[in-house]
Amino acid sequence: MRRIAATFALTLALAAPALAVQPDEMLDDPALEARARDISQNLRCLVCRNENIDESNADLARDLRLAVRERLMAGDSNAEAVEYLVDRYGEYVLLSPRADGSNLILWLAGPAMLLAGIGVAVIHIRRSRRTAEPEPLDEDEKARLSQLLRE
Amino acid sequence: MVIEFGHFALILGLILAVVQTVLPLAGASRGWRGWMAAGEPAATAQFFVLLLSFAALTYGFVTSDFSLRLVTANSHTAKPMLYKISGVWGNHEGSMLLWCLILAFYGALAAWFGGNLSPTLRARVLGVQGAISVAFLAFLIFTSNPFTRIDMPPMNGGDLNPLLQDPGLAFHPPFLYLGYVGLSMTFSFAVAALIEGRVDAAWGRWVRPWTLAAWMFLTVGIALGSWWAYYELGWGGFWFWDPVENASFMPWLISAALLHSAAVVEKRESLKSWTILLAILAFGFSLIGAFIVRSGVLTSVHAFANDPERGVFLLLITGLFMGGALTLYALRAASLQAKGVFSIASRESALVANNVLLSVACFVVFIGTVWPLVSEMIWDRKLSVGAPFFDAAFTPFMVALAAILPIGALMPWKRARMGRVMAPLKGALALSIAMGALVWVVQTGGSMLAPLGAVLASWLVLGTLIDLATRAGRGDLAGRARRLRNLPRADWGKSVAHAGFGVTLFGVCALTAWQVEDIRTARVGETFEVGTYAVTLADVDQGRGPNYETTMAVMRVTRGGKEVAVLHPEKRFYPVARMPTTEAAIDNGFLRDLYLVIGDPQPDGGWVVRTYIKPFANWIWAGCIIMALGGTLSLTDRRHRVAAGAARSPRGAVPAE
Question: What's the pLDDT band for B307 if we cut at 50, 70, 90?
Fold first, then answer.
């Protein structure tokens, strides 16, 4: 029951009236603001269910959005601003996990499977051709073929 | 009384499902005809009792019978009738009953239209289908019974989640379930064929329509969900790579692959064991999807809050059916002899490439979805995998798929000469690249996404047209038209579906690349410019709906002094559920959507207003509808309806294409 209540609270947070980025948060410099939006879309709202902070309505997401903008105003690069948040909230805040350590498995799984798939397919097609060379057409089939071609 | 009747019918359904499993399977292995024949009446009866049971629950919702726990939790007397009915499946228990009903429906269809299957194969298909029913009915009755009563019925209910009170979402789950559960049919066919130890062209022909139907329903269901997210969530996102979305997307990808490989089995009697494996996995992903949605193991925006007991039960079902089927597969797959031999350059190879790309794409989605869980369990590394990962890791596969599609579609079976395949496509290729260049020039640099989308979409659509033109042959117009008319519906379906894929791809790329967004505070009467449009916040009113309170804005949009639209974005509050929602106002257009959202009042007397121009947004869902139409066309092909050829020798079943 507590679990259900918690979910309900999260659903509420999800649909709370304040909608994502608010006008009062936005930076005056459009270039800086565009960078902030770009960064926000890759950061997770920690209390939400799989939402980035740019779309989230939660208060925490707003805090994070403001933090990103503060860092950018202070002259941080995009990477530095992200690093600042990772230092405080952990790797969990990144929606695109870093390609290091065990995460290499995640990133390389697709390409590796593709290569394996292509390899297996090519070997399979080659082998099946070797084991079963198509028989040449016999006289009946040749006659039928020329008849079909005439039609 | 009606409710108890429905409850009783549900239990009867479980008993009938047991009969449908045991008798035909035992009969088929012993060769007892009477036992085998029991499958059909059992399947029919099971469908009808579950239909009664579902009708009883619907009756409970429609009459607002608050002595039912489920109705109390999910309904309210003031709720509009449509949502009283859709509320039946807007919750875990009811949606599970719908799932079981559809499962029985497919079983009954197999019983009714299975006349030209061999008696043992039909008995085994029905038996396996019955076993799936047993598992899910047991799950429903023992862990999630929708007919539970309350001692002291309250005066009114807790209402359905307002986000779900929407026509798009009323029909989203039934379509998805028709798709998910449709794959149980291909699973049953695969397992039955493994038990029989026989997979031939007739099997391929039998499995294709079921796969096609399931894939079509999944396409429509996913499109409905995505469309709903677009207009309901308030900022026009159409895909979030949420675990639950992925749960529906994985079976879609695998069933798309299965659709193509089953064609190879049917036409060329090759790729048999691979096709069987896909058929098993496709349903496997449906089961995994059910587990993801209903266990709450992975956090997702789709809040089907549930207790772990249900998750464990579903995991058991998944493990049982996948474990059993894959063991059977490991034992029997080697005995499936491929007949058709093909060269590296051939339509078969192109379809293998399609299968590799779709399966690997599905694998990427799968590993991305479960990675947070795996990473935390094994390395104690708590992390998130979200949209940026999937965009980067998944997109290349779709690009590659679109790139090879028109070439593969034109290739002949067995052996192709690349020069001859490419010759008619050269024009299309040149034109597509020109389209991409044009788009790139028009947008003056910027993101490469839109040009790429333009190239791929033109390539797909032009490739389809060239395919059709080639099939029409040479000669006078009348002759070409006649040949086109006489093309099998399946070929038309293929062309239409492929073109639809192009349309969707273009919509996704264009919307992502060219969206214009404007967020600001506006006072009533104020006019502001967004892109080439002028937007005026004319008025903001308070009002009441049937079961909500609303703040509604009147916004006028003009372009060059001419009025384009008057839109009414709303902010609603549902007092019973104590939940606010945003209702964006959208002016739908062929080339763009205007998307307006009203936000909160500001201290200075203004309102937060969001304006989006969403280019080619509707192309995304139009493409999905076109894909589904292609599927429907293919499904009406007489080769599927008149499966008379199914019993003929495999040689006779290979059409001269």
Answer: low
Q: How confident is the model at residue B646 (pLDDT cuts 50, 70, 90)?
A: very low
Contacting residues of B for A52, CB less than 8 Å apart:
386-387
Measured CA to CA in angstroms, residue B265 lies from A80, B128, B252, B270 at distances of 55, 22, 20, 5
Rounded Cα distance between B144 and B73, Å, is 14
Per-residue pLDDT tens for B592-615? 999 999 988 888 888 889 999 999
* Pairwise pLDDT comparison (B224 vs A129), residue with the higher score: B224
Q: How far does A82 lie from chain B, in Å, by closest CA?
A: 14
Q: Nearest chain B residue to A50 by CA: give it.
A: B300
The answer to whether B402 and B396 are in contact (CB under 8 A) is: no
Angle at B287 between CA B281 and CA B293, to 5 degrees: 135
Q: Which of B299, B352, B579 sits opposite A50 (nearest CB)?
A: B299
Task: Give CA–CA dist B80/B75, Å, rounded.
Answer: 10
Mutation target vs A (from B93, B354, B356; most A CBs, 10 A cutoff):
B356
In chain A, the residue whose alpha carbon lies closest to the alpha carbon of B300 is: A49
Interface test with A, best of B93, B271, B358, B360 (most A CBs within 10 A): B360
- CB-based contact A117 B303, cutoff 8 Å: no
DSSP one-letter code for B66: T
Buried residues in B256-280 as b, exposed as e (16+ CB within 10 A): bbbbbbbbbbbbbbbbbbbbbbbbb
Over the stretch A82-140, which tens digit does the pLDDT of each residue have? 999 899 888 888 999 988 888 999 999 999 999 999 999 888 888 877 765 555 677 77
Of residues B227 and B155, which shows the higher confidence score?
B227
Q: Which of B336, B384, B549 to mutate to test the interface with A (most CBs of A within 10 A)?
A: B384
* Interchain CB contact of A122 with B (< 8 Å): yes
**Residue B272: predicted pLDDT:** 85
DSSP class per residue in B554-619: EEEEEETTEEEEEE--EEEEETTTTEEEEE-EEE--SSEEEEEEEEEE-TTS-EEEEEEEEETHHH
**Chain B residues in contact with A129 (beta carbon < 8 A):** 341-343
* Total CB pairs under 8 A between chain A and B: 163
- Smallest CA–CA separation between B281 and chain A, in Å? 16
Question: Tens of pLDDT along B492-503?
Answer: 999 999 999 999
The nearest CA of chain B is from the CA of A60 a distance in Å of 17
Q: Considering only CA atoms, which of B339, B261, B262, B412 is closest in space to residue A128? A: B339
How do B527-530 and B592-601 pair as beta strands? unpaired
Report helix, strand or coil for B67: coil
> Hey, how many other C-beta atoms are within 10 angstroms of the C-beta on B152?
6
pLDDT of residue B647: 41
- Reported as a pLDDT band with limits 50, 70 and 90, residue B653 is very low
Contact B360 A113 (CB under 8 A): yes
Amino acid at B75: S
Q: What is the CB neighbour count within 10 angstroms for residue B629?
A: 18
Q: Is B517 helix (H, G, I), strand (E, B) or coil?
A: strand
Euclidean distance between CA atoms B217 and B229, whole angstroms: 18
Q: Would you say B530 and B565 are in contact if contact means Cβ atoms under 8 Å apart?
A: no
A59 touches chain B (CB under 8 A): no
Q: What is A2-93's CATH number, 3.40.1190.20, 3.30.1360.120, 3.20.20.100, 1.10.8.640?
A: 1.10.8.640
Helix H segments across B444-579? 449-472, 477-486, 489-514
Chain A: closest CA distance from residue B355 (Å): 9
- Complex-level ipTM: 0.83
